[in-house]
Every structure is written in C-alpha cells, then in structure tokens.
Design brief:
single chain, globular
C-alpha cells in the first residue's frame, strides 16, 4: 500500500474502465478511480472516455467518500476538459442521471450530494427551469429540505444561468434571508453575479483595496462566481491584475489567502490564452518570491493541463 502516481499500462486502463465498479473493496475502487483520473490529467486517457465510465459507475457506488470523489471528477471533466460543444452534448444525459439519483437516494446525505452536483452542472433550459421551481418553492424535493444557505447557493447558480432574471432572483433571496451575516455575505458577492459587465468590473476594482478584502471567504466565493466557466471569457481580463496583487494579498491577508485567491481566480478557466497570461507573468519576473510562485503554479496546474482544449 503506497501513495503516489502509478503509471498504468493500456491493458490495466482498459480493465479498470470496464470492471472497477464491480470491485468489492471500496478502498481499491477509490484508488482505482484516482489512478484513472491521474492518467487523464497526464493525457494518457481521453477525458470523454473517463467521463463515460464515471457516469456509468455512479448509480452503483454506495460508499459516500467514493461517490463524492467520482462526482468531483465528473464535474472537473465537464467544466474544465470538455469544449462548449462537448459539454452541451453531455449535459442532458448527465442532468437526468443526477436527478434520478436525487430521487432514488434513500438518505438525506446522498440526496444532498447529488443535488449539489446537479445544480452545479445544470445547463439545459429544462434543468434550469426545474432549479428555478425548486428555489421558488413551487417544486420541493421530497426528503430534502433546503436550508437558507442551500437556497442562497441555488439563487447564485440561477443568477448565472438566467442573467435577465438575476436581479429579481437575488432581490427575492435577500428578502427571504433571516440571518444578518448571510444577508451581508450575499450583498457582498452580489455584484460578481451581475449580468452587467460594468458592475462586475467595478466589483473587481474594489477588491484592489485591502479593506474590501476583509472577509476573505466572501472574497473567495465572489471570485469563484466572477470566474465561473460560464463567464470565463469575459473574466480573462481579471487574471493579470489578480496576479499582480498576489504580493499585496500575502502582506495584508491570512496566510492561506494567496492560495485561495489564485485558485478561485483560475478555477473557471481552460483557454490557452488564460494559461499564457500566467506563464508570461512568471517569465517576466524571474526573481518572484519562491513561495508565491509555487502557490501560483499550484493554482494554475489544472489550467496548464487543460489549455489544449479548444473552444
């Protein structure tokens, strides 16, 4: 038993793709899926092939941790490795699978896990409309009550997908929130969800002031929405100034904030142009602080791996 990268030959990859979900030991199953995902990251296994096997395996996976990992792999492949066309082609089947699992799951933890992934990958008009009905209370999910936090998260996802209704949705959600801190959080991140690029630009400019970065978890959430894959193209302009702020972020923030800042900044991008911005930034600064450089490289790792994906 070891931890590390184990290079799989073609026969092993083929066997695991076909048979891994039937392996009884959940530890071996988890390790096997991790090994296959590593092969995908190293371009030894096409993303669409691994994606198809993961989707096929989900209904039979009963181990909670494995289920969460498989869903995380699916979401990463879906948003970061697939082209827009591939994502749209896969969306209906994936949406239906996850919704079926929401309905079929017997315990609330599994229902919640599947529903969170469903709302995060939903793209089709039918899935978006269903999420809207759930959020509005018109179609509650049997056996899965949604908390104030759950509904706020759902409202934010809807604002990204229904830009013409974003203001109405966020206004209504703010009115419904009873907890003052949650109200303040949504008010803070709300500009990052705006359909108006000028509002998003102004919000990003505000983050250049240290006093506007005081609640760092809120900043991380807002950056995640600002750079969401659905907004990635328009958000590329924020990458370079975000990199230029890294030294100040380190000087004025929590010790973990620089990593969270750059991870949220790069987490929605997959284009060669975005990857080149990072490479050019580091190439122009050969004496850049070692620790900060490593944080940037860690945050950019997946972006570098997927930059060959063509939009």
């Amino acid at each position: 038993m070891s931890y590390g990268y184990f290079q799989l030959d073609a026969t092993s990859i083929s066997y695991l793709l076909e048979n891994l979900s039937q392996v009884e030991d959940p530890v071996i199953r988890g390790a096997g899926w991790m090994a296959l995902y590593e092969e995908c990251l190293r371009h030894e296994l096409p993303a669409e092939v691994l994606f198809a096997s993961l989707v096929k395996a989900i209904p039979s996976e009963q181990e909670s941790l494995n289920r969460q990992n498989l869903l995380a792999y699916i979401q990463t492949l879906y948003w970061r490795f697939f082209t827009t066309e591939e994502r749209q082609a896969a969306s209906l089947e994936l949406e239906q699978l996850l919704w079926n699992q929401v309905i079929a799951a017997k315990d609330i933890s599994a229902k919640s896990t599947y529903f969170r992934r469903y709302q995060s990958i939903a793209l089709s008009p039918s899935a978006t409309e269903q999420l809207y009905r759930i959020w509005s209370g018109a179609e509650p999910i049997e056996g899965l009550p949604l908390s104030e936090t759950n509904l706020t998260s759902l409202a934010c996802e809807l604002a990204l997908r229904l830009p013409d209704q974003a203001e109405e949705i966020l206004n209504k959600q703010l009115e419904q929130i009873k907890n003052p801190d949650r109200q303040k959080r949504l008010s803070f991140i709300r500009p990052s969800l705006s359909a108006d690029p000028a509002v998003r630009d102004a919000f990003f400019e505000s983050l250049k002031l240290a006093e506007n970065r005081h609640y760092e978890p809120w900043v991380g959430s807002a950056l995640g929405y600002l750079h969401h894959p659905l907004r990635a193209q328009s958000a590329e302009q924020y990458i370079l100034p975000s990199l230029e702020l890294m030294e100040e972020i380190q000087a004025t923030g929590d010790i973990f904030f620089p990593r969270r800042w750059i991870s949220a900044t790069l987490g929605g991008h997959q284009s060669p142009a975005a990857a080149q911005i990072v490479r050019d930034f580091l190439a122009a600064r050969p004496d850049y602080p070692y620790r900060l450089k490593n944080k940037i490289l860690m945050g950019a790792d997946l972006l570098f791996r997927v930059e060959g994906v063509k939009e």
